[in-house]
């Protein structure tokens, strides 16, 4: 992005985004292309506290696609006129880049000249997000422009193998645990190795039971490239799987697929070994290291089998960072 024409286009887009009081949604690819190209535009000048307040709240930080270091960063706006301390509350909303999904929201009383807020939960890592602040008084409200920033990067290990390395945490309901005979979460680690014959001579998977889950650490990171980025191997029959992606072992996790039929047969897998694929982009996640694999079959317990729930054999990164 070095030509005069490119810089003109960038300025036009920046002006559109910063137009006070309007929510301007741009196609994610266009935004990424314009803001991720290394162009040195610098932050917008911040008015001094002595200057009159504007008609709308003005996002001060984080803005202009800057990356925050903290998982609980502070969001600050310059107040709008008539919405200063003692006059208004400010609602801060955190959204995905597309603006289609709300990540968090919080309302705080106006500060003096500026208002700051933090969200109760840590932000998801490895994402580009947007935020707005809307001032509300007894008589009126005023909305800020949409500001964009990047959350902290996911800390990725050095592993080069695409398969799950360790179990972070797991849960299977007692009723399912009592009934199932394949209850070892370590069976979800490493390359797919499930096999055997049913119902009680299988090996290589964990049956999750009714809405149970296993959360695995891949050590390596998956990155969002065109097409599916993560594959879950599932045994025995077509059962549904819900998958969440996270940038830290304790989350927060973003749902990247809900009750996805997991029944594509693995060639040479003896007919029982199957898989389903997931796209990080579906949840606007840029990169992830931890995956929470959850039963999506939701077959009520007690049921009639010893392999109740999705039977997880392995988790594989298709696009290694
Ligand atoms: Ca993808
Ligand atoms: Ca296995």
Structure description:
It is a single chain. With 321 residues, the protein is mainly β. 9% of the residues lie in helices and 37% in strands. The protein contains three helices and 21 strands. It has helices spanning 4-18, 28-35, 174-179; strands at residues 58-61, 66-67, 75-78, 89-96, 102-109, 114-117, 128-136, 141-143, 147-150, 166-171, 195-197, 201-203, 206-207, 213-223, 230-235, 239-246, 253-262, 264-265, 273-278, 287-295, 311-317. Strands 2, 4, 5, 7, 8 and 9 form a six-stranded mixed β-sheet that branches. The chain has a five-stranded antiparallel β-sheet with strand order 10-14-20-16-17, with no helix packed on it. Strands 13-21-15-19-18 form a five-stranded antiparallel β-sheet, with no helix packed on it. It is elongated, with a radius of gyration of 24 Å. The relative contact order is 0.15. The model is unreliable at 1-43 (pLDDT under 50). The structure holds calcium ion (2 copies).
Give the overall shape: elongated
Q: How many individual β-strands?
A: 21
**Cofactors, ions, other ligands:** calcium ion
Please bin the fraction of helical residues: under 10%
What's the number of helices? Answer: 3
Largest sheet: 6 strands, mixed
Roughly what is the average pLDDT, rounded to an integer?
A: 87
Structure classification? mainly beta
Radius of gyration: 24 Å
First-residue to last-residue Cα separation: 25 Å
Q: Which series of helices and strands comes N to C?
A: HHEEEEEEEEEEHEEEEEEEEEEE
List segments where confidence is low: pLDDT < 50 over at least 5 consecutive residues. 1-43
Beta-strand share of residues: 35-45%
């Amino acid at each position: 992005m070095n030509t005069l024409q490119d810089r003109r286009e960038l300025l036009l887009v920046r002006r559109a985004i910063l137009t006070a009081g309007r929510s301007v949604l741009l196609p994610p690819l266009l935004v990424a292309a314009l803001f991720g190209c290394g162009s040195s535009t610098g932050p917008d000048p911040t008015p001094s506290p002595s200057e009159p307040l504007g008609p709308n709240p003005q996002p001060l930080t984080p803005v202009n696609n800057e990356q925050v270091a903290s998982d609980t960063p502070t969001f600050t706006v310059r107040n709008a006129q008539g919405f200063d301390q003692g006059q208004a509350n400010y609602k801060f909303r955190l959204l995905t880049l597309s603006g289609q999904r709300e990540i968090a929201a919080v309302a705080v009383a106006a500060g003096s000249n500026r208002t700051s807020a933090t969200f109760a939960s840590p932000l998801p890592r490895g994402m580009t997000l947007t935020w707005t602040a809307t001032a509300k008084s007894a008589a009126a409200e005023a909305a800020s422009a949409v500001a964009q920033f990047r959350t902290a990067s996911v800390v990725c290990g050095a592993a080069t193998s695409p398969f799950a390395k360790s179990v972070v945490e797991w849960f299977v309901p007692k009723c399912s645990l009592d009934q199932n005979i394949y209850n070892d979460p370590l069976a979800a680690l490493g390359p797919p190795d499930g096999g055997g014959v049913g119902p009680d001579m299988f090996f290589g998977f964990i049956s999750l039971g009714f809405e149970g889950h296993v959360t695995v650490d891949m050590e390596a990171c998956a990155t969002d490239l065109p097409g599916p980025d993560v594959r879950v191997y599932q045994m025995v029959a077509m059962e549904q799987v819900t998958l969440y992606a996270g940038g830290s072992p304790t989350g927060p996790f973003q749902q990247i697929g809900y009750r996805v039929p997991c029944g594509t047969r693995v060639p040479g897998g003896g007919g029982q070994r199957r898989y389903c694929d997931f796209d990080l982009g579906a949840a606007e996640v840029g990169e992830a290291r931890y995956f929470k694999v959850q039963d999506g079959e939701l077959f009520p317990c007690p049921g009639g089998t010893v392999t109740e729930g999705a039977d997880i054999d392995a988790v594989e990164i298709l696009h290694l960072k």
